[in-house]
Specification:
about 325 residues, Beta-Lactamase, 3 domains, 10 strands
Length: about 325
């Protein structure tokens, strides 16, 4: 009976441990998703700001004139005010150089870069067309393109503004909870920014386990990160660039306190079960010893030893039975 009574308590403790464990995982997912959403929003706002600023620059008459001998001074003056912009360059749709903030810029882009930039310009709107190694910094840059219309209102050129992602990442990812790591990667699975060890992982591919997600827009994930650390996290997509922002907490940090609580709950459950079994054994043993003594005394009385009496012991019911039988034996002995 004691064991039966202990089972619900043991099951309750086990259910508590499971719920606590699952709750800790869910909390880590929720916290990570909140951080990922905040970073994605910051990136999206940043691209919207660049779209607005480059759009204003593209509408300036000196830029729309497309005159290499009379460049708008703002093209040269603007990048120093924004260190994350490695340059601003004005090129025609064949990628021929018109104006630039660089002291030494290539006259013409390579075929692949030129094609991407021209396609971006012909789209008629600001666009992040590619991620590549910067000519100046040697680091990963995002190539932003803003179409430029000539005096006749026809798209005839493009403003190219490479964004240094390490400098930009240091700014965007600077104010994060210490327990959460954020990584940003593009649609090809290349790491663009990271809140920790950014230099070591700049331009490297995302692990396959993290890249095999069913929904590339938003979701939750539990896997090893690029450093092989088991993590619990979530990811969201930046609308303007379609980059993916992943935020995560290490399993050890997220589940450590709950792992201790689970072990304590399991220990308590085992202790309760052990106590119940021990109590059941003790009660059963006490009853069996009392009954064995009663049987022994009864046998002696039946054999003529009417003076034999059973010592009271065991549970209340057994003691009552012993007193009754001892009374019977007393009456039998008195009649003799």
């Amino acid at each position: 009976m004691a064991v039966v009574c202990a089972i619900p308590g043991v099951l309750g403790l086990g259910l508590f441990a499971v719920n606590t464990w699952n709750g800790a995982i869910d909390t880590a997912h929720v916290r990570s998703q909140a951080v990922a959403t905040r970073v994605a929003s910051s990136l999206d706002r940043g691209f919207n700001e660049y779209s607005y600023l480059l759009g204003q620059l593209a509408n300036r008459p000196a830029v729309r004139a497309l005159n290499a001998s009379a460049c708008d001074p703002l093209i040269r003056e603007y990048p120093p005010l924004h260190p994350e912009l490695t340059a601003i360059t004005l090129r025609d749709l064949d990628s021929n150089l018109i104006c630039t903030s660089l002291a030494n810029a290539t006259k013409t882009l390579g075929p692949k870069e030129a094609g991407l930039a021209a396609d971006g310009a012909r789209s008629g709107a600001f666009k992040v067309v590619a991620v590549a190694r910067g000519e100046v910094s040697g680091r990963t840059v995002a190539r932003m393109v803003q179409p430029v219309k000539n005096a006749q209102g026809v798209i005839a050129a493009q403003l190219l503004a490479p964004l240094d992602l390490r400098i930009y990442g240091d700014r965007i990812l600077s104010d994060l909870p210490e327990s959460i790591v954020v990584s940003v990667f593009d649609t090809e699975g290349t790491i663009l920014m990271r809140s920790r060890s950014a230099r070591a992982w700049d331009g490297r591919p995302v692990p396959a386990a993290l890249w095999k997600v069913q929904d590339r827009r938003e979701g939750r994930v539990r896997a090893e990160d690029v450093e092989g650390v088991p993590r619990i996290g979530a990811y969201v997509t930046v609308p303007a660039s379609h980059w993916i922002v992943a935020a995560s907490m290490s399993e050890a940090e997220a589940l450590g306190p709950h792992r201790v609580a689970t072990m304590l709950a399991a220990s308590a459950a085992l202790l309760c079960f052990f106590v119940a079994v021990l109590a059941a054994w003790f009660i059963g043993r006490n009853v069996s010893v009392s009954i064995e003594r009663l049987i022994e005394v009864t046998g002696r009385v039946m054999s003529g030893g009417t003076s034999a009496r059973a010592a009271e012991g065991g549970p209340r019911e057994i003691r009552k039975l012993i007193r009754c039988l001892n009374g019977v034996f007393d009456r039998i002995d008195a009649r003799k």
